[in-house]
Every structure is written in C-alpha cells, then in structure tokens.
Design brief:
The protein is of the alpha/beta class. It contains 13 helices and 23 strands. The chain has three domains: 201 residues, 3-Layer(bba) Sandwich (FAD/NAD(P)-binding domain); 110 residues, FAD/NAD(P)-binding domain (3-Layer(bba) Sandwich); 120 residues, Enolase-like, domain 1 (2-Layer Sandwich).
C-alpha cells in the first residue's frame, strides 16, 4: 500500500483552496496548502476587497457634493490618495493574515511556496518533494494583457492597488465588469477617464436593458466612451502615453489600463507531467464533480473558468471537502448565482437575462425606470435606477431579476433567495413593500412592459 505525505494537497491559497483545505482538515484529513504569492488570493489582495474600498471612497466624493442640496455646507479640500491607500492596504493585510490563521487553526500544513507537478501524485513545493493521495488545483486567474506594440507600457488591474497617485487622465481598455468598475473608481476620485471597447455597448453577457442603462450612467458621470474600437499601439511621448485605436483615433493618457479579462493561472504548473488536460485558453477541464482528466486530481475556482466569483469558489471548495472526506457527497449549484458590478450606480443580477429566457420559451418582461428619492433632491446626473423581472409565461416563475441603482447588490441578495426557491410573479405581487425604498419596486411591478420569446415558441 502506497503511503503519501498528505491525504490532500491544495495548490493555491485563495478563497477556494483555503475553504477546501480547512473543511477537509476538519473532517480528519491530513491537508497541505501551498500559496506562492499571497494568502486570500485575488479577492482579498487585488480584487473584491480593495476594489470595494476604493469604490466606497469614490462614492464619498459624490455624497460630499450632493450634501449641499440637503442643506449641508461642506468644504471639499480634495482627495488624499495616500491616506486611502494606507487604510486599504491595512485592511487587506488584516484579511490576508486571517486566511493563514484559519488554516493553522484547522491543523493544515501551509507552504509559502510555488507548487508544481513532478508526476500525478508528486509535487515540487519550493524545492521540496511532496506526495499526496489527492491533489486539487485552485490557482485562480491572472489578468490578460493585450499583445500589441507597446503593451509593456500599460497597466493591468492588479496595478491599480500599487499606484502612488491618481493618474490625471486614464484610458481603460475593456468593457467587462472590471473595466467599468475601475473606470468608476478613477473618475469618482477625480480623474479624467475614457473607456475603449470593441462592442457597441459594455458588459457583454448582462441583460440588454442593463447594458443600455449602464452607458447612460457612465456618460452621466462625465466619462468618454469609445465603442467599436480597440487599441493597436501604445507609445510614450515625453511624460505621457499615446494610444492608437483601430478606428484611426489617437488618445493621450497618463495611464492605460488593460481590463480585458482574466485567464486561468496554469502556466508553468507542469500539468502535462501529471496528465491534466486544459482547454485552448489554459483553463483546467473538469467534470461535474470537478475531477480533471486524472481521477484523483481536481480543480476548483477561477482556474476552471466557469463562474468566476469568490462565493462560488468557496461553495465549491466546501462541497468538495464534504464529498471527499466528510461522507456527504454533494455539489454546489452553479444556477441562479447572484452577482454584482460595483460601478456607480452598481448593477446586480440573478437568474436569466431576457435574451436567454426568450430562447427557452415565452416570457413576460416587467421594467421600471425612475429617479430615486435621494436624487430628485440632489439632481445628480446618471443616477436613474432600472429594475427588471423576467417571468415565465407558462409557470409564472421569476426567471431573472436585474437592477442598476444604488444598493442594488444589497437588494439582490434577498431576491436571489426567492428566485432560487422558485418564487412566482404572484409571490412577488403579494409581498408588501417597504416604503419609501427603491427595493419595493420589485414587489409593485404590475404592468407588463412587453413579451419576449413568443416568436421562437411559435416556430
């Protein structure tokens, strides 16, 4: 009988890996986790947490300006980037440290080192040879950099959190949630911002009404949008950058950010030595139980490029730990996962878009657009809210809910529970709203805006 150093070895100390390791150890497994960069992974260090802190900082600037409309006489002396950075970094360090303490408290062996495969059961961990009965790849993702001349002059999303000062003029390349969030931060803290993206509208994959409303909100904040364009060259002229676009336009900037997506962090792991297969983009291929092409090797989190969200990663990690060592085989559910885009105002969504739902069958669409009470007073541009329900005509189940507006993420968490439980439009209708709130609009949508998917059903 083969004896291994560990029952489970996890490569990656982010949200997925730490949850898996901690719960597995709690079930009695001998567990080790290796992390080469920072504990807590992308979310804690260069993602969700520091980003949200900076979004909050940008919001305070707008609130300070709006205060006058409510009778406050405030003086704005400008933003202190260094003070924000110090507070942000202190919180990040605190949270990152907690991850290490959680593992130690559970009896997990931690390696501050890079782990690569020697063979299907053996790893090189910082020069040490380690064996494990089961191995889980949880190395997350890494920012994608465009392959164009001068690409080395551009920054990626991670770099926002190491800047010493706010760039006066920023060019943000991309149209996904990272791009619009970063654009919001930079603009809200006082910079001039332009967005450049290949599509006609940003936020591909989101509901079309939300995408349209997002454009209005971004423009309302004073951003310049450059749709149907992409950078083809970046050059440096004296102390600034010159970016040539595919539509022959040229833009000057003090900083250029590539926010063009993330790729699975599998480069150099030695997956070929273990026989682990990846797709063309480098993401690890797994089955519904997160097994790779080698049955005792698994992969979870962003490295499989399925639903790249921190709560999804932790849920999968926990489920896999229960399955492997807790005598409780189960799977995390990838359906109806609520998510948010922390632009300004934020977007939140759960379930199907109108387009996706219409492909399945006829749906009723309910949409409301309004100015929140706060901004009927402040008169701030780009703050209209949009709320939308997508309802199956046959069953009356609410298939999707979408919102752009202040507090949308907080509101959508509760809506996600209802949709996950199969709530119908009638369930929403008989729920008494909390007045006056924006959230009550979800339970007072009575007039159908339109139908969708009827033509497809008739064919």
């Amino acid at each position: 009988m083969t004896t291994y150093d560990f029952d489970l070895f996890v490569i990656g100390g982010g949200s997925a890996g730490v949850r898996l390791g901690r719960i597995s150890a709690g079930h009695g497994a001998r567990v080790a986790v290796a992390e080469e960069r920072f504990w807590g992974g992308t979310c804690v260090n260069v993602g969700c947490v520091p980003k949200k802190i900076m979004v909050n900082a940008a919001e305070y600037g707008a609130w300070a300006e709006d205060a006058a409309a409510f009778g406050w006489n405030l003086e704005n002396h400008g933003h202190d980037w260094g003070r924000l950075a110090a507070a942000r970094d202190a919180e990040v360090a605190r949270l990152s440290g907690i991850y290490g303490k959680l593992l130690a408290g559970a009896g997990v062996t931690s390696f501050d080192a890079r782990a690569t495969f020697i063979d299907a059961h053996t790893l090189d961990v910082g020069g040490q040879r380690v064996t494990a009965e089961r191995i889980v790849i949880a190395t997350g993702g890494t920012p994608h950099r465009l392959d164009i001349p001068g690409q080395e002059l551009a920054l990626v999303s991670d770099d926002l959190f190491t800047l010493k000062a706010l760039p006066r003029r920023s060019l943000v390349i991309g149209a996904g949630y990272i791009a619009v969030e970063f654009a919001t931060i930079l603009r809200g803290l006082g910079g001039e911002v332009e967005l450049v993206y290949r599509a006609p509208t940003p936020l591909r994959g989101f509901d079309e009404d939300i995408r349209t409303a997002a454009v209005e909100a971004l423009v309302g904040q004073g951003m310049v949008l450059n749709p149907d364009a992409s950078p083809v060259r970046i050059g440096k002229v004296e102390d600034h950058l010159m970016v040539t676009l595919s539509n022959s336009g040229i833009r000057e900037a003090d900083a250029v950010f590539f926010c063009t997506g993330r790729t699975a962090n599998t480069q150099g792991l030695g997956l070929d030595k273990a026989g682990v297969r990846t797709d063309a983009a480098g993401a690890v291929i797994v089955d519904d139980d997160h097994r790779t092409s080698i049955p005792h090797i698994y992969a979870i989190g962003d490295v499989i490029d399925r639903v790249n969200l921190t709560p999804m990663a932790t849920a999968v990690g926990h489920a896999l730990a229960d399955t492997l060592f807790g005598n409780n085989p189960r799977r995390a559910n990838y359906e109806n996962v609520a998510t948010a885009v922390f632009m300004s105002p934020p977007i939140a969504t759960v379930g199907l878009t109108e387009t996706d739902a219409a492909r399945i069958g006829p749906v009723d669409i309910y949409v409301s657009r309004f100015t929140p009470l706060r901004h009927t007073i402040s008169k701030r541009e780009g703050r209209k809210a949009l709320m939308k329900l997508v309802v199956c005509q046959r069953t009356q189940k609410v298939l999707g809910a979408h919102m752009l507006g202040e507090d949308s993420a907080e509101i959508m968490q509760g809506i996600g529970i209802a949709i996950g439980m199969g709530a119908t439009k009638q369930d929403f209708d008989r729920t008494i709203g909390i007045h006056p709130t924006a959230a009550e609009e979800f339970v007072t949508l009575r007039t159908r805006t339109r139908e969708a998917g009827v033509a497809q059903a008739a064919q």
